[in-house]
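Teaching soon. Got one?

===
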Amino acid sequence: MGNKKKWQFCHGYVILQIEGVYPERLVSLLEAQTVPLWDVHRPRPGALVCTLPARDFPRLRSLNRRCRCRVHILKKGGWRFRLRRLWHRRVLVLGMAVLLLVTHWASRRVWFVEVQGCERMDEAVLLEALREQGICQGRNLKKLPLSDLADFVAARYEELAFVELHVDGVFLRIRAREALAEGERLDQNVPCDLVSTREGVITKVSAYGGRAQVKAGDKVKKGQLLIAGRVTARDGSMTYTTHAYGEVLAAVLYKAQVEAPKTQVEWAETGEESPCAALYLGKWKLLERACPFEDGTLAEETRELSLSPWPIRVCRGTWREKVKAERTLTEAERKEAALFEAERMALLQVPRTAKVIMIDRYTVEKGGKLYGVCTVTTEENIGYTKEIT
């Protein structure tokens, strides 16, 4: 009965009070017509109170002609009547709909930014670098490659060793790990692990403290343990923590893919010319004939007139009008432009301290489009210390 009441609440219901000599006859006729009734009770002699669906209420009028009872509506309930009341308050409904849409739109974007780990480096510099990559307040970041963008920003500054971005609802949490300054050493009494800052293939492992967990030739992922600071004795008698440090070199691959442009905008002279002249007295400009064109180049000829004690300088030349013209590139020019841009984007991701081993450039076609692809292989130290808590 409970589920039935919930279903009737969605369609709407009516609570009636039936008064007459024999109100039971009307109730019996309703049940004979398979009209569902519930909560039927007698508040006083000669009266019955019952609840029936709103869609069956019109059938009550024809059945009541046989019984001659008085029917009073005590209450109308359910979504059917609530929505009907809201229909007369359209401004309120429209405002609620707009509020829901704005709330849904705002909940999918980042509005608050928290930065952790920036001590020597200014937070504003880090935020500006992220803003250049499209990471800012009011932006939907769920479809952006946050891990790749964080590595790209960390590679631009020598002060940063590691940057991690994490979206938590409307909060963007930025955790930065600053690189050690030259000559700076960590407290050797602090137990810590050495973990990987990025994905790569190990080429050399030199563990000066702790126990190495990888060897040359192993492929590691970002955040993977390289040198453990929690060490178990070889006989298994005890486990202790120490300060793990060392040098872990790995071959890291950076890749960039750029679509080849079909046209290129270049400056071209139209052939229109106009004379140009300017008069200077020392460093001050006295007279000048401005360029009559929107864009132009100046073929300038300078003539010095020395009238002591004030140097007078007269500049004469010709303004040549030039405009931007779009030129269709050939197949070879398209490939060269795409490869050049792809190599530039790939090298921007490489940290300054990394050693470039190999650069590979090639073109591919996908979906009828031409792309330039560049892969840069480097050898770099990928370990950073993480305190054991």
About this structure: The mean pLDDT is 82. The first helix runs from residue 2 to 11.
